[in-house]
Amino acid sequence: MDGNMESTAEELERLRAENAALKAGKAEKVMTFKVSEKGAVSVYGLQRFPVTLYQEQWIRILDEGGRLRAFIADNKSSLATRDSK
Question: Number of H helices and number of E strands within the chain?
Fold first, then answer.
């Protein structure tokens, strides 16, 4: 089996699992990752459209994860959540 067939089989299995979860009432969104046509990383499952950044941008965000969490904690009273909209 070549790399493309494995990717297709993996994606099919993931879609089947997502479909089964939706049918079972577990509509929790699952984050998935894909490489965009331009070679960037797209994250699906956060919102209606994917969030797409180049690898160095994702790495910068990941490197600042602690500061981002602290910022969110410090500003929690000012920040909205999806549930509050």
Answer: 3, 3
